Fold this sequence. Notes:
Blueprint: H1 3-25, H2 51-66, E1 68-73, H3 80-95, E2 99-100, E3 105-112, E4 115-126, E5 131-139, E6 146-155, H4 159-176, E7 183-185, H5 207-222, H6 224-229, E8 236-241, H7 248-261, E9 265-268, H8 273-286, E10 289-293, H9 296-302, H10 305-316, E11 325-331, H11 341-344, E12 349-352, H12 358-368, H13 401-407, H14 413-426, H15 437-457, H16 466-489
Parallel strand pairs: 7-9, 8-11, 8-12, 9-10, 10-11
Antiparallel strand pairs: 1-6, 2-4, 3-4, 4-5, 5-6
Helix pairs in contact: 1-4, 3-4, 5-14, 5-15, 8-10, 13-15, 14-15
Amino acid sequence: MDQYTATKAAHFATIVNDLLALGKAGNAGDYAEPVIYSPGVQISIPEGMSDSVAIDTLTQYVADKRTMTTVIKDDYGYKPWDVAAAVARVLAAQFGITTQRGRGSQVEVQCDIDKVLYVPWGEVQVPQIKAVVTIDSTDLGDGMGMVGRTRIELPKLYEDAARGVHQLVATELSKHSIYRNKAITSDEKPRFLNPYVTDRNNIVWSASTRAALMGSVLNIIRHSDRAKERAIDLNRPVLWYGEPGNGKTETMNIVAQEALENGWSFIQCNGTLRDLVATLRYARRQGRHVVAVEDFERLVNDASQQDRTDLLEELDGATSKGSEVLLIATTNFLDDLNVHQAARRRFFKEIHFGPLDAQGVENLLRITLSGTAAEDAGNTIPAEEHQRTVYADEDYTTMDYAKVTRRLDGWGNSYIRKVQEFAQSIALAHETPHLTTADLLDAIEAYQPDWDAYLASSGRAVERTFESEFRKVVQEEAKQAASIALEENE
């Protein structure tokens, strides 16, 4: 044996010993440096055992160690191609070059936008431990769909080394999943999405929609750790509704951008309600995820009763507690969900995407006409005509109970509690956990459509209050003044 061959053999012997030790320990989390380990076994011959029996015993022991065995790992909880990529990296790092068996192949897998890699699939030979590693997929029957699996067939002598490989693959997935902190589809072979096709600087919402988005979605993503410190649940389903053309799809892209920029992952769910349930279960095992689904009313109406029951469990059942999954469902036809009130009641917030308010229209015009319009005359719509209150400076630092109380005049107790809880999410933008007047006024803006819808559904007209009537008077007078000014100019 020449010096190169001897050195190489010693190197692989060290790797095998490390893997044996790792497999015995059963924990890759603390594995960083090579482990000094001797697989030698001391055997003591019991007193009174004859030499022939001892020889037979040792012979059987050696034969057992040479017997082939199979070690299976099927509970990674990651998608098949993710597991295949992790196995490829681990085998390359531990053993260098491996070879494909007759039933093995190299498969092209997308790993990012416009990026692919080739991963082993099927059987891979690892001669250093006399093993055949099989990479495939399986359905464990837990509702997650197809997940990756590895099977390692090798002599019993190296059985612990196989477990060591499995531990390293699990660690590699937890740290370097190809789908982590990315935007993908829920397909078995996911596609990568580019949410930056939407320019967030060109999107405008009405005041109530913006307040609802900040409190129920954006602040949760931007300030996740702060929310956990303040015991605010990161597991929340949100329903967006409104006619097509009011910005739901563009806003979803903005949410995906926020997710990727703040350590979350994003999955666009395609398919049926059962696929949505599987995607939610997958996401719960992977950490912070935004799961988005469009045409929610179609999925619910086309689903079986069992699938609807499974969805309710995922929305707020015991299995969802403590997870960090933000579900955003959208619909163009909210009335189609009226027959599924059990599902609607599970949503943390329903957000209406409708026509812009006066300030929103002006903002949108200023954005879209920037650089093409004539010189700005400097005029803007009077504050009195805005649909939301223009807050005073002190509203952002103090609590004016009288101002908030006037805005909540006539509201039901349960909705007032919802406003208070929602304001806590809006206040995540503050470093200190103190609520201000502006936080509560924003929360009221967000819940005004909900309160109005409740009154309408219960056969009650929207209650007339001093605040609402005063707004109507101011807006009407402003319109009349504008009309008179226009006539005088003509």
